[in-house]
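DM from R.C. (forwarded with permission)

"hey, sorry to bug you on a friday — could you get me a structure for this? deadline for the figure draft is monday and I only need the backbone to look sensible"
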Amino acid sequence: MTLGSIDLGILLPAFAAGVLVLATHVPLGMQVLDRGIVFIDLAIAQVAGVGVIAADALGWEPQGAGVQVAAIGAALAGALALTWTDKRFPEVQEALIGALFVLASCVGVLLLANNPHGGEHLKDLLVGQILWVSNAQLIAMAVVTAVVLALWRLVGARSGRIGFYALFACAVTASVQLVGVYLVFASLIVPALATRRVPRARRLWVSFAVGVAAYAIGLALSAVADLPSGPVVVLVMAALAALIAAVVARATASGSDGRLRAVQTPKERVVERR
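My reply, with the result:
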């Protein structure tokens, strides 16, 4: 455990990958939290992973165009299915998202059952290989990030269910192949949870700062302690989120006007006590 373990040639591309993931997942995460569909990220990521596993089972080139098409095709199919269920059965949408995640996970396990490297592939899908991202992957991710953010800025809430789920599927498909399911889910939900009581004007930037700090500290700690980077970043992000949430809660409770205000998601009540 020495500072000499920190190789910037490896850590900087990994950090850049994390920042690119956060660029789309922070704003999308706020929407997910507001819509009450928290586990959509896990479900779509797992469905995209099944596309990657299926392409691998067919013998396609791991980084080839065919695998990318299979991944985005599977993710979009999952997104369209969730769009339909959101319209028809909104009261049980969260349960259906969870069911989709379990089904996709089982399909992935079955596809890997006869693969001698199946366990390794499954671990890569969940934990990711953020330390080994290539320049080509970063460039591709930067392009996807720019497109998703541009479309989100142009259409945003006007995109409706189909537009939201489609953009979400594209962002998650690119991210999960870069950093794995766990980091994708943490990047989406944890910063949004940490800042749900922060005033809307500053919430986006505070959320992004939490995520960036978590990637920077987590990657450095994982290098020094020689531990898997993905899980360390997730734990650091959770710790920072808890700290920020506690600070914001205390500041809210001891406001200068002596009133207690809680700014919550649309599915919660807004509490104001004088």
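R.C.: lifesaver. The CA atoms of residues 56 and 62 lie 7 Å apart.
me: no worries. The first helix runs from residue 8 to 35.
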